[in-house]
Write a structure and sequence with these properties.
This protein is 0% helix and 62% strand. The chain has strands at residues 3-10, 16-27, 30-35, 38-42, 47-51.
Length: 58
């Protein structure tokens, strides 16, 4: 399951949601996100951008 330091979600109405330090799973009906706040299922997804900082030895 991918990990992101920052995950941005652009919704169909052009609003944006940002999550920090999450694991996520893209699927046909949207995206499922696991964060410190709990589990989120979002179906209104136009685009996602995941960012991960690489460690110094990568």
């Amino acid at each position: 399951m991918p990990h992101a330091d920052t995950l941005d979600i652009v919704h169909h109405d052009d609003t944006r949601t940002r999550f920090k330090d999450v694991r996520y799973q893209l699927h046909r009906n949207g995206i499922r996100i696991w964060s410190a706040e709990g589990e989120h299922a979002i179906t209104d997804v136009l685009m996602t951008q995941a960012y991960r900082r690489r460690s110094a030895d990568s």
